[in-house]
Amino acid sequence: MKKSSNTYKCLFMGLVAFGMIVATTSCRFEEDDYFSESASLRVEHTNDSVQYILANAPNGWVMQYFCGTGAAHFEGFNLFANFDKNGKVTLAGNHRMLRDGNAGKYTEATSFYSLLLEDGPVLAFNTWNDVLTPFVDPVDPWSAPKNLVKDGQGMEGDHNFVIMSYHDDEIILRGERHGAEVRLVKCPTTWQEYIADTDKMKNYITNTSISSYYVTTGTDTLYFTGLRNGRFRYCENLTNPVKLDSLSCTFTPHGFRTEYQDSIGTQAFHEFTLAPDSTCLVNEDGMVKVMACWDNYMISHSAVWKIDQELFTADQTDLFDKINTEIKKFNSTWSLESFGIGQSSGTNKIIGLVLTFYTNTAKTKTNTAGVSMPMTKTGFGQIQISYTKDEKVDKNMESIVKKAPDVEAYARMFADLLNGTYNITPNNYFLPTGGEYHAVNGGTTFRLK
Fold it and tell me: I need a surface site. Which of 77, 250, 291, 384 has the fewest CB within 10 A?
């Protein structure tokens, strides 16, 4: 994966001298001929066009802001901006760098902006603003990691931006000092709604249980790790990767957008949106997919997911009934509530087949007992269950078999029935809590819920 080169479309004097004016149907005032005017007047007319666009956004703008370089590179931040035609701008955000006790709290602040008459058009936020200035202030922000940010350097953010291209609904900026790419896009909703919708999407596609993602074109595959942090790593292998690189992003109501355009193989990407079937995220042309590594999670999660008894075979039903009868030798008030797959409770925990018991009086879970049942991934969305008679049991099972030895024997027989290769269809591709296990070689199809 490498950073792609970009061709930026702006009205710099040098380009104008060669007759290269921005030509795009969505750019305003494109039909005006400025060749007979001085360079400074051409820049002034460009600024007039940009200011007209800035001040004509009913819901203002989302500012996808990036800052920092090297090890001190930060995640992307969603700021919001409402420009008026008289040079005032209201900025808003709820980012973690807000000061005076406002970190993480929605905050608005009004200041001034201007469009400078330099060699090319420059958008300048040239007075203090509580929402933006923490990124620019050379004094160490109180909430920034001390090992990354030092006094005199700050977060290496920009408040003056060269305008690289402008359209009615999108303006691409580049920091004049530190060079980060910043994007202004018209906000489709109120700012509070945009924040809520973005948080909802972020929480859906990222979580603390699954932190790694396949990034694939079908022929080339890499991995993203730590996407939730907004500053994620990508590598060629999740285990002992040869190289780790980092990339920042901002989240959107539909997915996420990276700081700059990047590529995998020959396919470029910049923004990912949730696919209509919610199985993955896709880039702009649908050629690159980001898929959560849900299959890794499904064979290593600690939560016990029940095996749906509606899909039990006759042999499985028979074993369930036998254990239910046998367990009363250990405790006359207990019954078998379910077979499940996950991590058993108590000491000497195992990942595998878990028997959950409840008391007949309260009808509430009372304990679990487990048999180790190795599950390995044999391909994306495919696993192998390889149970043998030598697999360990947990301490709870050891305790039970002192009075009811057949419970372990029946549990091992149930585990043995699951030996085989399965294709998995999760019930949620970003945070599964179960799914269908379709037997393709041995075993028997079952459902976790």
Answer: 384
